[in-house]
Amino acid sequence: MSVHRTPENLAWTRLASSPLVQEQQVAFTCATGVPLALVPASVAAPDDHSLCVKGCLGEPSGKFCRGRLLQAEKRAVTRVGPVQYCCPSGLVKILVPVFINGQHVGSLLAGPFALHELDGALLEQLVERLDKLGLGDRVEQLQTTWSYSPLLSSDKCRAAGTLLRMFAKYLAESGKQELQAVEPHRSALLEKIETFLATCQDGRVSLKEVASKVNLSPCHFCSVFKKQTGITFSQYRVNQRLEKARALLGDDERRVSDAAFEAGFESIPYFNRAFRKRFGCSPSEYRARLLERNPGQANRNAGVAAMTPGGFND
Question: Which of 52, 174, 206, 258 is deepest in the core (most CB within 10 A)?
Fold first, then answer.
């Protein structure tokens, strides 16, 4: 998989490995008894299995654990909020997405923990589910995992959800501040380019025209621009249009397609792909977050997604 490393992704990586954040991570576990991991967004994860888990039931349970994690991540990004789900062992995990500058960069993953005692009826239900996954011979490992997992009351589970939301907000704000602090000094050349582009209302200006404006050949211009900004001029223009489209999406009277065309995109499918790659969600999902609309959020508990009576959120 080709990983698209944006400044936001890099900020998340630095934050996740910083001593202060790791101290807060340990403090959460000490206060709640629940393990906490900081995982990168799946779209930015390298091919080193950084999102994989070994699985407490032995192979191939790790594959199922990772599948549940990716499903939970997708729901959390759509909801722009916490998602509670169960791993194959029936234990509970909470995933809270973290956004920096509107881009999903990573998640807080708390768990596993239990909300119920492992009585006979629940064990029978879990064994039946394991049978369907081809893990019916792992009953002993299942019971061992449950015996070492913390048991949380409903109140403590809600409190853990609150702490996770506060932590996610802190990470989002810290990431934004870090990006502002490390923003490179703007060169005179780049300022001249942006000033010129601002006068091109329709956004149809060509690379040749911009290069001519700063008295460079197209080839030399591309080389200088990439060296100063770290990206190609083409990608720079796409990012500019995406930022404009993102601002336009705040107007709920304007259709998404209109926002795309006004920002300079000529293809809606391309706009959707570029927007998701840049911000980690679709334009419609981003608008829903801006307007605090969440059609898929049926949860009445703002801290944690609801579970079914059997303790599962499938």
Answer: 174
pLDDT in tens, 63-101: 888 888 989 999 998 888 899 999 888 999 999 999 998
Residue with tokens 């192979």: 59
**For residue 201, what pLDDT band results from cuts at 50, 70 and 90?**
low
pLDDT in tens, 51-65: 556 777 777 777 888
Mean pLDDT of the chain: 81
Q: What are phi and psi of 143, to 5 degrees?
A: -65, -35
State the pTM of this model.
0.61
Q: Under CATH, to which class is 7-181 assigned?
A: alpha beta
Cβ atoms < 10 Å from Cβ of 105: 27
Instruction: Give the DSSP letter string of the chain.
Output: ------HHHHHHHHHHTSHHHHHHHHHHHHHHS--EEEEE-GGG--TTTTT----TT-TTHHHHHHHHHHHHHHHHHHHTS-EEEE-TTS-EEEEEEEEETTEEEEEEEEEEEBSS---HHHHHHHHHHHHHTT-TT-HHHHHHHHHTS-B--HHHHHHHHHHHHHHHHHHHHHHHHHHHHHPPPPPHHHHHHHHHHHT-TT----HHHHHHHTT--HHHHHHHHHHHHSS-HHHHHHHHHHHHHHHHTT-TTS-HHHHHHHTT-S-HHHHHHHHHHHHSS-HHHHHHHHTT--TT---S-SSS----TTS---
CATH topology for 184-290? Arc Repressor Mutant, subunit A (1.10.10)
Start and end residues for every CATH 1.10.10.60 domain found in the chain: 184-290
Specify whether the CB–CB gap between 152 and 113 falls below 8 A. yes
Q: What angle do CA 221, 264, 244 make, to 5 degrees?
A: 90
How confident is the model at residue 303, as a pLDDT?
37
Six-digit token string for 16:
């996740």
